[in-house]
C-alpha cells in the first residue's frame, strides 16, 4: 500500500467514525488536505475497495471501511499518528 493509499484510508476512516455515514471523494477533498483532485481520490478509493479495505453499496455512493480496513487503521495508521504527535512534543520541548 502506498503512502497515498494510507493517507486516504486514514482520512476516510476518521471521517466515517466522526459522521457515521458513507464517505465520498468530494467529502474527502473538501474536508481533508489530501492534495489530490476528487477524481484522483476516487481512483485511490477504488483501489482500496479492490484491496478489501473499503466497501460500497452503490457505484456512485460513498465508501465505508471493512473489517480489514479498520484493522489496518488501528494496527498501522493510528500508531503512526501517535508517533508523529510524540515527535512533535519532543521537538517543541527542545526549542
UniProtKB/TrEMBL annotation:
Sorted alphabetically, which InterPro entries does this protein's record hold? Answer: HrcA, WH-like_DNA-bd_sf, WH_DNA-bd_sf, WHTH_HrcA_DNA-bd
Q: Which domain of life is it from?
A: Bacteria
What region holds the Winged helix-turn-helix transcription repressor HrcA DNA-binding domain? 2-71
- GO BP term, example: negative regulation of DNA-templated transcription
Q: Where are the transmembrane segments?
A: none
Keyword list, A-Z: DNA-binding, Repressor, Stress response, Transcription, Transcription regulation
GO molecular-function annotation terms? DNA binding
Reply yes or no: does the keyword Nucleotide-binding apply.
no
Q: What is this protein called?
A: Winged helix-turn-helix transcription repressor, HrcA DNA-binding family protein
Taxonomic source organism: Leptospira interrogans serovar Australis str. 200703203
Amino acid at each position: 500500500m502506498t503512502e497515498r493509499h494510507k493517507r486516504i484510508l486514514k482520512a476516510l476512516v476518521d471521517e466515517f467514525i466522526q459522521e457515521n455515514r458513507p464517505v465520498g471523494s468530494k467529502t474527502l477533498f473538501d474536508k481533508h488536505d489530501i492534495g489530490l483532485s476528487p477524481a484522483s481520490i476516487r481512483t485511490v478509493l477504488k483501489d482500496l475497495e479492490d484491496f478489501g479495505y473499503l466497501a460500497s453499496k452503490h457505484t456512485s455512493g460513498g465508501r465505508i471501511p471493512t473489517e480489514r480496513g479498520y484493522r489496518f487503521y488501528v494496527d498501522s495508521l493510528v500508531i503512526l499518528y501517535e508517533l508523529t504527535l510524540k515527535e512533535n512534543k519532543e521537538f517543541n520541548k527542545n526549542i
